[in-house]
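Thread: "does anyone have the structure for this chain?"

Original post by V.I.:
We have the sequence but no experimental structure in hand. Need at least a predicted one for the grant figures.
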Amino acid sequence: MAEYYDVGYDELGYDEIGDDYEGEYGALESGALPRRLPGRRTSAPSRRSIRGSMPRPRHANRLMLLPINTQGVAIAAGAAGNATGFPQKIFKPLRLVIGARTDTVGTFVEAITAAGWLVNQIMIGATPQAVALGGIVGDLFLATAVETNFEFDTAQIGHQVVVNVTNNGALAHPFFGTFIGKAINLPQVL
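Reply from O.Q.:
Generated one for you, tokens below.
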């Protein structure tokens, strides 16, 4: 059961510092009883004291990048291709960003952005990440797009993360994209 001096003392406006004590256990000048007796704990133990001095894992659940690309191989105009990434840590993708680039063939120059790509499928391991078949416009994956975080499945170490895309441009282009997500560092076994 809480004592009268354990709760509400601050709200009553009495002196926080306690310089009004008369002697070691004396009453306040106002005549009220002291907030707490010396040596008595008035609050719950801190999380630090309960948990002890156990160190927190370094960089646990921090945002990291997973590059997804076609390894420099160009995807022909109107053709589809796979861009693959291989996470080396447990990785939970949150957002896909498609890069922009400019390619030249002879005198013809074409700049391609995310709008020049159609995302047909995103696979993590063997699991598709869309609820239905069909293409997703690349505009959704622009670097400047807002509210484009998703709940992708977690990729385990050894899983492939594959993005199947169609090039909507007039030239062949390699695909470059990046997943932004949370990586989980496992404790190292010595």
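V.I.: this helps a lot. The longest strand covers residues 62-75.
O.Q.: and The two ends are 48 Å apart (CA to CA).
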